[in-house]
Predict the structure of CHMP6 protein.
Amino acid sequence: MGNLFVRKRRSRVTEQDRAVLQQRDKLRQYQKRLSLGLERERALARQLLRDGKKEKAMLLLKKKRYQEQLLDKTENQISNLERMVQDIEFTQIEMKVLEGLKIGNECLNKMHQVMSIEEVERIIGETQDAVEYQRQIDELLAGSLTEEDEDAILEELNAITQEQLELPEVPSEPLPEKIP
């Protein structure tokens, strides 16, 4: 499963990340060589003790101890390299976020240049005027007029009706009776 993670991770890495990961892989190979050498030296030290060569066994165990310390240092270096790769990846993410913020800020600035505060206030004022005018029309149509308004409207309607109606003259003679 670890190898799958490394393969997936490597597919997203940059050249710099690849270089760091190659160094890590080299350190791991070095670690394996040291581990195998430590096992051989321990077995050799046992053999030397059996053969009665205590000083040589002691010297070999000192060398083994030194190599174990190298192995610990190598593990620390590998941890540092992996941490560095993670830091690089996180920094790249931060840079993308920063670039997104920069683009967004530029876009907002352009929008602000197109639309000034005075223009917005003018549009809002015109909208409020239009809404008020429509409200007045709605009130008129809804019958929210006072009785005086209703009387004035009826008088005006009668005056207009009288102007439009011109009646023909009515004869003054009586009408003839019906013929059977």
Notes: The chain has five helices and no strands. Confidence is low (pLDDT under 50) at residues 1-11. The first helix runs from residue 2 to 11.
